[in-house]
Design goal:
This protein is of the alpha+beta class. It has helices at residues 3-17, 21-33, 39-44, 57-62, 67-80, 96-102, 111-120, 125-140, 150-153, 238-256, 270-273, 277-285, 292-303, 316-321, 331-352, 364-367, 376-382, and strands spanning 159-165, 168-173, 175-177, 190-192, 221-224, 234-237. It folds into two domains: 3-149 and 238-382, no CATH class; 152-237, no CATH class. The chain has 17 helices and six strands. A four-stranded antiparallel sheet has the order 2-1-5-6. Strands 3-4 form a two-stranded parallel ribbon. α2 crosses α8, α7 runs antiparallel to α8 and α8 (125-140) packs antiparallel against α10.
């Protein structure tokens, strides 16, 4: 998902969930900031690098893909953008190394979604925004994994867009370009994706890079033959998935606010969004690569307030000039603590499932900004050595 959904659409969901305009602005800023809180940004404010929630393209180019490098990549992308669906999934006739990656495939309504939402309850608005980003991405990024893998994340020539035509539909083969300077062309079905590489662990095979930005566009429906599904056809219906994401965010935030007693998976606030459902579906179906203006207009219609544009530098000076004792109480300080908690929780769940691919989690509440660290025993474990005791 892009700024249009993570920022403006999330603002809409927060207001519909009952938050004030000011609260909704903090939530949607935090949701969007997940895509910008890189080590480069954290270095610029002298913040803890272990709180990174994303990686810039230049950072990925320089990222090592040895065992420690892969753990670093996986901690970020699996915790915030490709939340694993089933950490105990079964797969016959495969190696342990492949099974570890297979278990990181993202999908909506997995147990970790509930863990993510519950983690944000009774926490800061920044933590709520982080949880909403993670939850929304389980809908957009389903069927891809937040760790480099050609087997799981690769695409081939069998990649077709499904175009509704009345009561029927047509299909057309999509074309991919590797020119990073080119723009996606929905009208002609040409999209930019990462360069094909046969190495299993190259960052070119991270997440949905091989499918380009298609998963981030709400209007598209596509089908392809992923290797992880034994080359059986998989259909992705983004308009439906994004609508479900929207309704689930409203429901999740109503739970966080205490208006719903329990958070249940596969549950949506259809009644709350009903007055605006037609407008929401129109935006989702619109064939354009940026819906920000439409979501912004809807959000301002719902709240009657003006939504400020996203500015990555908005809270930098507050954090940089705050004393050491006050940094945790700044906007970015609260975001950093929420990010560390989310990363620690997901990494811990992955490791406790018997999977060393994301490293070991260190509880920041006990260890401060030591954050997440790796241990030599993980290297032994990943190479077939001792299991975690």
């Amino acid at each position: 998902m892009n700024t249009d959904f993570h920022y403006y659409a999330t603002y809409c969901t927060a207001v519909l969930a009952g938050y004030s305009h000011e609260e909704a602005c903090e939530i949607c800023y935090s949701a969007q900031f997940v895509d910008f809180c890189s080590k480069t940004f954290l270095s610029s404010i002298k913040g803890p690098l272990s709180a990174a929630t994303s990686q810039l393209a230049v950072e990925l180019v320089e990222q090592k893909t040895d065992i420690l490098g892969l753990q670093d990549i996986t901690r970020i992308w699996s915790s915030f953008h490709f939340l694993p669906y089933d950490l105990h999934a079964k797969k016959k006739h495969c190696s342990r190394i492949y099974l570890n990656k297979y278990r990181l495939i993202c999908n909506s309504n997995g147990k970790l979604v509930a863990d993510t939402v519950n983690l944000a309850k009774n926490k800061t608005l920044q933590a709520v925004g982080i949880a909403m980003h993670v939850t929304a991405d389980t809908w957009a990024h389903k069927y891809f994994a937040g760790t480099p893998s050609m087997v799981i994340n690769n695409t081939d020539r069998f990649f077709y867009e499904v175009l509704p035509e009345g009561d029927s539909y047509s299909v057309r083969q999509l074309k991919f370009s590797h020119n990073p300077g080119a723009k996606d062309d929905p009208e002609n079905g040409v999209y930019v994706n990462s360069l094909y590489q046969t190495s299993e662990n190259t960052v070119m095979n991270l997440g949905h890079g091989r499918a380009g930005h298609l998963p981030d566009y709400s209007f598209i429906r596509y089908k392809y033959l992923p290797a992880w599904a034994d080359y059986e056809e998989v259909l992705k219906d983004n308009p439906s998935d994004y609508l479900h994401a929207f309704a689930q965010l409203v429901y999740a935030m109503r739970y966080i606010r205490g208006e719903v007693e329990n958070f249940e998976l596969n549950t949506y606030a259809w009644d709350i969004i009903e007055p605006y459902r037609g407008e929401i579906e129109t935006i989702l179906e619109k064939r354009q690569t940026d819906d920000a203006a439409d979501w912004k207009a809807l959000g301002e219609k719902i709240s009657g307030k003006t939504i400020p544009d996203f500015d990555i530098d908005r809270y930098k000076e507050e954090y940089k000039t705050a004393s050491k004792e006050e940094k945790n109480n700044t906007f970015l300080g609260k975001f950093i603590l929420g990010a560390l908690a989310q990363k620690s929780m997901v990494t811990g769940k992955i490791y406790k499932s018997g999977n060393p691919i994301a490293g070991v989690s260190v509880d920041y509440k006990k260890n401060g900004f030591a954050g997440i660290k790796d241990y030599m025993k993980l290297i032994e474990y990943a190479n077939g050595g001792k299991d975690d005791e």
